[in-house]
């Protein structure tokens, strides 16, 4: 008897194959084998004329989805069908979440097996887990399938109904999504808060005291019987003290006068309070908490975290990584507690096994938290892992083990001191027993260093003590605007609001960035002007769809469908076809939406209008003699666009650029301008004779206010020729490039050019030949350690190409993800996520691209040959083309 086992990925297939008998054949479905059509090409001929075909869902026939097998999956399906011919039994072993259940159902529908079918589920890929799963197979859970299918249809209805509206009213290429649009709105709301924020300033005092030769610091907290103002006392919208707060607001003069008043005066301890506290360890990781902590600690994006976790799971290192549950099995509890006892000692064990309660109602994705796989946990050092896989496994291992450790015991010490009428306070913390902190400190890479950082030791003080004051200083503060969302904080907010599923957060954030709704500035997600325009439109005309409460309610309904508590069809009918359904709303609102208004972004305290144009956002203002427009520089964010910036941008357009000075060599004026990519200097004006005058971007740290004429002349003279290399005769120059200042040695066409980036202390305008030679003598650093390598690092490694065993990987490009093999690149089809791309699909995409390139090359060759033989002119060619079109 032979058995065919189908899983999603080749990696998973390879791992599972090791744990199954020889008569079991394991094949990969490469994710979903069918889906709703992603383009008009995929719509079957027999339904192309139907008005619902483009939507992919027949809303009038009980929302029947139109499932198709994409071209990229047809070979996979054939392979599976061929394999099934020789099998006596079929086991569907896809993931145990809704998506995995749906994949199994689709496989059953496509393959139409005539042999017995079993559904096998497991949450880790170990010999023991696979054996247990084989002995406990079940049937397909159709409630889970209905929940996934309903989600897929909902997402299609929202996306395909609203996105065309955005194309008509704002700009082509935009998209709306059921969860995506709510996430974008969160970013926009935070940016609005930053625009509305008004800075407040306050001063206080800090003193350094000594008691029994031990120094400590203390801070002013009261004057007389009134509290001294801190940042929390300010109204963010006014920059003033919140009405009704009875606090003392010190300015600089008052603070410095108080320093003079208190200097030399005696200090006395007025109160000492010691308060013992305990801290419990955090629960083991769920999908969202893993994404948050990996972003904080490892600076990994949600997408990268899920990609690495997927690899760790498929290779048998961790349990299933898409889960809302914090529960640990008895096996996991035993393994974790064994690790604690062996590595830290029995005193570090919690008195009894800790079991955590899952707060999320919809924690159905898997029945256990993310943890190391197996009945005994391999330490990170015992694995062959390296790089980011090792870092993420280490994080998961520590968090799991720490969850079974004893509480940390600490003592909080608060000392109040008095000097004349001023009250000061010192706070200390003593770690009496580190407990779980010995293994894991949330947000810190080094538990031992974190323990030291967390302790603030004060000298032994008692009421009546008179410590000596070494110095007092006045300290100024300014209130800060609300912090922008990072990936970690956005994921945390989405989960706390019950919006979307944690397993989808990675693709949601990627889509927000790829669609131009947000840019990453450092680790912060900054919404664009386009995000403001789209959010404004949706808030005004479709408020429910961007309401977190409404979206969270949709998620709860999907959870109820998965458990059989709600019916999927009535819900879809009400959502889309109901009296206030989406289809009705769009029909009613479309005529009411004015495109000119939709393309405008209303910003507080700004007279000028911001509009979304074909080539990006621009400013529009009336200067009295007519309407003036000017592009907004790419690096200028919505919260930073103020009236001064607007005036500067418009002034350049109407009055021309500011003249910095005159170039002593040519006598031409040097102008400062602001372009799409920021400020730059220009030599002379653009004329018919000189359409492209010499230009140079500002170096990092240089502004229009501190740029000198000498610097500008130097920038415009770049590249600077420094001399000739004494060994190879190559010309050495210094210049500014995309990645900053550099030196280059040009050894001609055959030898090529060799580059070195300048160090922080080097100046591109004054670097000497000898210093350039020093830099060029250093070993060349590959960009694997710089920004370029991050762009070159694959998002996913799909496997080896059958033709030459060379790797086939998925990369992130300027126009979205693409697959690469050798020198051939092929874009990933729109609508396909990085996680969904399979090796078979990638091979077909690459083959199609290669054949297209060949045909283009052949066509060019033929055209060139024909032209050389016939002498065809451009005019004739144009006429011929016109005839063909007619």
UniProtKB/TrEMBL annotation:
User: What Gene3D superfamilies does its record include?
Assistant: 3.40.50.140, Topoisomerase I, domain 2, Topoisomerase I, domain 3, Topoisomerase I, domain 4
Q: Which PROSITE patterns match?
A: TOPO_IA_1, TOPO_IA_2, TOPRIM
Q: Which GO terms describe its molecular function?
A: DNA topoisomerase type I (single strand cut, ATP-independent) activity
Which residues carry out catalysis? 320 (o-(5'-phospho-dna)-tyrosine intermediate)
**Which ranges are annotated Basic and acidic residues under compositional bias?**
790-804
Q: Which Pfam families match?
A: Topoisom_bac, Toprim, Toprim_C_rpt
CDD domains linked: TOP1Ac, TOPRIM_TopoIA_TopoI
Domain Topo IA-type catalytic stretches: 141-583
According to the lineage, what is the superkingdom? Bacteria
- The EC code for this enzyme is 5.6.2.1
Q: Where is region (Disordered) located? A: 272-293, 364-383, 778-815, 849-886
Q: Start and end of every Toprim domain?
A: 2-126
Q: Where is this region: Interaction with DNA?
A: 175-180
Bias category Low complexity: which stretches? 849-871
Catalytic activity line of the entry: ATP-independent breakage of single-stranded DNA, followed by passage and rejoining
Is the keyword Isomerase in the record? yes
**SMART domains per UniProt:** TOP1Ac, TOP1Bc, TOPRIM
Ranges of Basic residues composition bias in the record: 872-886
| Role, per record | Releases the supercoiling and torsional tension of DNA, which is introduced during the DNA replication and transcription, by transiently cleaving and rejoining one strand of the DNA duplex. Introduces a single-strand break via transesterification at a target site in duplex DNA. The scissile phosphodiester is attacked by the catalytic tyrosine of the enzyme, resulting in the formation of a DNA-(5'-phosphotyrosyl)-enzyme intermediate and the expulsion of a 3'-OH DNA strand. The free DNA strand then undergoes passage around the unbroken strand, thus removing DNA supercoils.
Query: Which family does the record assign?
Result: Belongs to the type IA topoisomerase family.
Oligomeric form and interacting partners = Monomer.
The protein's matches in HAMAP family, at most eight in alphabetical order, are given as:
Topoisom_1_prok
Name listed for the protein in its UniProt record: DNA topoisomerase 1
Source taxonomy: Bacteria, Bacillati, Cyanobacteriota, Cyanophyceae, Oscillatoriophycideae
